What does this fold into?
Amino acid sequence: MITTSHVLLPPYKAHVNPPLFIHIYNMGTYLHNLAQDEEHIFQSRFPAVPVPDDITLPEFVLQNAELYATKVAFVEAVTGKEVTYNDVVRDTRRFSKALRSLGVRRGHVIIVVLPNVAEYAIVALGIMTAGGVFSGANPAAHASEIKKQVEAAEAKLIVTNGSNYEKVKGLGLPVIILDEEHIEGSMNWNKLLEAADKAGTSFFNEDVHQTDLCALPFSSGTTGLSKGVMLTHRNLVANLCSTLFSVKPEMVGQVTTVGLIPFFHIYGITGICCATLRNKGKVVVMGRFELRTFLNALITQEVTFAPIVPPIILQLVKNPVVEEFDLTKLKLLAIMSAAAPLAPELLTAFENKFPGVQVQEAYGLTEHSCITLTLGDPEDGSRIAKKNSVGFILPNLEVKFIDPETGRSLPKNTPGEICVRSQCVMQGYYNNEEETARTIDKKGWLHTGDIGFIDDQDNVFIVDRIKELIKYKGFQVAPAEIEAILLTHPSIEDAAVVPLPDEEAGEIPAASVVMSQGAKESEEDIKNYIASNVAHYKKVRVVHFVDTIPKSPSGKIMRRLIREKMVEKMRAKLHSESNVEK
It folds into this structure.
């Protein structure tokens, strides 16, 4: 008797007729195994786009810059300071020469601790041109956090400004100060560039290749320890080729973008600085968000494109300061929302307040060199992605959705972990082979940790992060869904939902809520509001009123921090109650 345990079957494909002996044991078993083995891999609806070989990121973004020499590339919204394309090209080369004269070699990591300033892109591109690796750090970070990044990256040098010098002066590395002032023990930016001019070509030169590392951004720490993401020139050039494929020739040199997203973040340096330089547009640089300054910049600088995050959209919709401005003067054509889900109600409210402004939702991650999904079809304006989706798969990318438990790829309309494979996928985490192996599998698939699905029209929807899903008595609760409902309440300004440990349920949904001024609702009222809009297992069991929702510079809710604070409050309350009973 022949049984399946005695027969080794080859991995036959669906279109191949099964061999006759299959009928001997079980056609049903064969078809079941076939379905289990089928790979559901989705590709872009758009044609592949070419990626140039052996060109570095600085060379790629500054191609044809001489044709725009006098055009402003960066202007600071507050100071009015301007940097032209001629300045960018000249000072990128000068800074590169200065770095090589200081001994910077291929692969050396340089930490940049700067707010958004007009020269930021020059600093980053100069590092890359010299063969170095740019690693942006949050200027608002504590000195101890910057020290951790410096040590983890094995950095050789630091670039900062006067106001952040105290945070880095004790780290034992050479420091370049961007400001005009001279600080004892540091090198001055302007003097370095002047010295580079006088040095001629007497410094050591080294060829830089597309396969070399050029950036080491540190991935978001909102769901775990921060890790250095190794990106090559090829990674970032490929990403820009994919994301900018829809830019038509007549748009080159015509787009003015607001640069509010932190430039140390991949979204800022790649999605704003490099993308704008490639298309010869202008960036209106903002060092921090202040609503009046932001709105004034949009109007006076005639901004046409604003990459922002949901918390800023919330301000634009709900803050009465907006009414002080004549919105008819806006030249804004589109905003791009990224870093966190945009609640459907918030999207509708924005569209009502800013009619005619297109809302693009984007999806991307540091490990994939930035943007991964896009809004619409450039060849047919009517084929625009559905609202609340993050668009279509970009050219040159493959995407699949897998069952997090089994690893099996899933068909359309079935939520699973998003996995992506392309030339944009990082080389790995710096000095962290274990996390690299956990994130990129042997077939080159980057496991994002995000849950989503693709529908019949190829729109991709993000549901939530795997690590952020709340497990209540075996049911999965998506925080983003509950947050979207909370934001429909007229008295709620902002909200975040996190899991709290519970003996009976495993985890319970808990909400941190920012109430509007003068609101009279109680915590119980908020619980009842959610209960009337969701299934029983999605009810919010705990509500805490807070002044603000902590968010990362890129706009992501810092759920881990919120959860820790809530747990502390619960423990303190239990301790207080136990003391009263004694």
Notes: DSSP finds 17 helices and 28 strands in the chain.
